[in-house]
Amino acid sequence: MTRMTWHEVAPDGAKALFGVHHYVTTRTSLPEELIHLVFLRVSQINGCAHCIDLHSRDLRKTMSVDKVTLVPVWEEVPHLFSDTERAALAWAEEVTRVSETHASDAAYRAASAAFEPKDLVDLTIAIAAMNAFNRLGAPFRLPVAARA
């Protein structure tokens, strides 16, 4: 079934959401690779094929295929991920699953220890933005670039 292209149907809404994306990717001190790593993990949790495809491709420009492949099981391969990456991935999972985790005090303490206050807020905005994109990409089945 072909579904509508959400950003063509609601261009003003798309512009607003892409404005948040632009802020996160150009106006924060978060490293670009870390942002895409978090975008990928959030998209994996939410099952957004388009976003998984897109952010996997973005990461493969600067990250080994092995590391990208193991993002879903990052906790099992800590030697592949820096302390900062592990903290960001843990916080991304906590915030994405907020209905289950309620952003626990323990998770907040860990994230706060790893990031300066502004960076933690910016990271959380990045996580929230990707969750919003996933909630549009998955239901409207945005296409993937991947081919068999």
Count of individual helical segments = 9
How is the main sheet built? none
Share of helical residues: 55-70%
Average residue-wise pLDDT: 97
Q: Which residues form runs of ≥5 with pLDDT under 50?
A: none
- Write the element-wise H/E pattern from the N-terminal end onward: HHHHHHHHH
Overall 3D form: globular
Q: What share of residues are in beta strands?
A: under 5%
Derived structural class: mainly alpha
The span between the termini is 20 Å
Write down how many β-strands occur, each being a DSSP E stretch of 2 or more residues.
0
Protein model, in words:
The protein contains 9 helices and no strands. It is mainly α. The radius of gyration is 15 Å and the shape is globular. The longest helix has 21 residues, at 117-137. Helix 3 runs parallel beside helix 6.
Highlighted features:
globular, 0% strand, mainly alpha, 148 residues
Summarize the structure.
This protein is mainly α and 148 residues long. It is built from 9 helices and no strands. The longest helix has 21 residues, at 117-137.
SSE arrangement:
Elements: H1 6-9, H2 11-26, H3 32-46, H4 49-60, H5 65-69, H6 83-96, H7 98-101, H8 105-114, H9 117-137
Helix pairs in contact: 2-9, 3-4, 3-6, 3-9, 6-8, 6-9
